[in-house]
Amino acid sequence: MPSENRLALTLMFREYCSLCHKMRDALLPYQAEYGFDLEIIDVDSDPQLEEQYNELVPVLLHGGTEICHWFLDENKLRAFLNACRQS
C-alpha cells in the first residue's frame, strides 16, 4: 500500500508479458534512488483496464498521466522524478 507522503507510480502489467517484466525490473534502481511507491496492476484482472491498455502494456503512469509505454523511457522518467523532487 502506498505511503501518504511518497510519490506513487502505477505499472499496468501482464504476467506473461516479457516487456512488462523488463520495465518492472528496470524501474528498481529508480525506485531505490527516488523512493517512490510502485503499484503493479494486472490489466487482465479488469475488463475495462484490459480494453483501455490492451496493446500498450506495459504502461507506466502517475495518476492518469502516462509517463511511457512498451519500454522504459529513462529520460522521461528521470525528468518527471526530478520535477517531482523540486515541487
TrEMBL record:
SUPFAM superfamilies recorded: Thioredoxin-like (SSF52833)
InterPro entries: Glutaredoxin-like, Thioredoxin-like_sf
Name of the protein: Thioredoxin family protein
